Structures are given as C-alpha cells and as structure tokens.
Amino acid sequence: MEDKTAIVTGAGRGIGAATALLAADHGYGVCVNYLHNEAAADDVVRKIRERGGRAIAVGADVSVEADVIDMFETSDKELGVLSALVNNAGILAPQMRVDAMNAGRIDRIMRTNVTGCFICARQAVKRMSSAYGGKGGAIVNVSSMASKLGSPGEYVDYAASKAAVDALTIGLAGEVAAEGIRVNAVRPGIIYTDIHASGGEPGRVDRVKAGVPMQRGGHPEEVAEAIIWLLSGAASYSTGCFIDVSGGR
To answer: Which residues are catalytic?
Structure first.
C-alpha cells in the first residue's frame, strides 16, 4: 500500500495532538507542526514512533508565509508525497467585548486563524491537485461552533475568524473538487483543551457545559475521529461539508 502523509498544524496539544496520533494509527506518516512547545510536539512524535508509525516535528508559525513554505518542503523531503492536511492551528485572546478590542489583537487572530489556513491550503493544493500533477488528497479545516454562535461577550474576533474558515472550506471545495481534492471542516463545540486558558478562563468548559444538550464537554479524541473520517475514503463523496462535534449545541 502506498504511504500516506498528513500535515497537522498546531499538533502539539489538544485536538491537533489527538488527530496526529489517530492519523498515525490509520497509516499516515505525520508532520506534527508546533509553534512554541517543541517538547510537546516531540512527545507526540515519540508516541507515534512507539506505535510503529512515522512522524516528524516541525516548528513553524502558520501566520508567516516563509515558515509555512519551509514546513511543507520539510514534510516533502522527510515523509513523502502529501495526501492530507489538517488546518488545526488557531489562537484566541482574553475574553472581552468588541468595544474593548484593538486592531493589533484582531490582526493577530486573523493572521493565524485565517491567513495561516489559506496559505497552508494553498501549499497543499499545489501538491495534491491534478492540475499540478498531483494524485489528489483531502483537507480538513478545524473551524468552531463559534462561527455560528458569535461568542458574544467573549471573543467575537475568534468567532469571525472561524466564519472565514467556513467560507474558505466551501469556496475551496468548489475550486478543487474536479482536481481530486476534497475540502471539509469540523466545528468543535465546548472541548476540554488548553486553548481556554488563552482566553483567560481555564475552567470554561465546566462553566458552560450545562448549556450543552448532552450536558458535558467534549474531548479532543472525539473531534479527531470526525477529522480522520473526513480524510478517509469512507468520505469519498463528501466535499464542502461540515461536521458539528458539539454535543448538540
């Protein structure tokens, strides 16, 4: 069987780490991207290799175009032909209303969550598309239920960035469907990850979980399962689609 390769951005923790581990279990060689926490990414790589899989850790800031280009080239050299991209890297800032936000904060959110997603997708298309001599592949963008709910009083800028990811998913899916590439997205709801600490409330999941129909927060592994399904041949006739992994919220 031909080797499969996946790049998972923001894969040192949370949903990205769970996805990288599950992708390796499904036969992918995995490029584990990280920004600052090299030790966490190395730990994910170690776990994959202990299971008999192939993985490398590559530091890159997805908001920096040159970093993204270098990351894809490193993956090409060390893991082989790219067949899957998971656009997972994302940031948020401390909770506040829109009337308290400055342009610097908004720009940081958009550069990582939107521009980074676009540039990674561009590099993937150039490798996968039949128009470039590629053999096809799949892209999964990690959006958020915030794109539908708006996150009022907390982080409307983050929600807006994820709404842009939704639009990218639909538009890019239409552009490359005839070139052998499927583009889909997952929209996680309230998930137990470290990102909530970045918003200033590490315990946010437990505070809001009573408002979830299933009465609990989700786990990164539950989101990873949806991502891997969308990457797989089982989803071969699905593109431009969304799976809400949100407990009914």
So the answer is: 158
Cβ atoms of residues 121 and 139 within 8 Å: yes
Are 30 and 74 a contacting pair, CB within 8 Å? no
200 torsion bin: left (phi>0), alpha (psi -120 to 50), beta (else): left
Q: Where are the domains of the chain?
A: 4-245
pLDDT given for residue 195 in this prediction: 77
Could you confirm whether domain 4-245 is CATH 3.20.20.70? no
Report in angstroms the alpha-carbon separations of 181 from 47, 140, 164, 175: 29, 11, 20, 9
Q: What is the Rg, in whole angstroms, of the alpha carbon atoms belonging to the chain?
A: 17
d(CA 9, CA 124): 12
- The whole-angstrom separation of Cα 102 and Cα 98 is 9
Residue ranges of the chain with per-residue pLDDT less than 50: 1
Contacts of 63 (CB under 8 A, 6+ apart): 108, 111, 112, 115, 116
Neighbours of 102 (CB within 10 A): 8
The predicted pLDDT at position 202 comes to 81
pLDDT of residue 2: 62
Distance between CA atoms of 23 and 88, rounded to whole angstroms? 14
Distances (CA, A) of 125 to 33, 58, 122, 134: 18, 20, 5, 9
pLDDT of residue 194: 81
Q: Can you spell out the DSSP letters for 85-151?
A: EEE----------GGG--HHHHHHHHIIIIIHHHHHHHHHHHHH-GGGT---EEEEEE--THHHH--
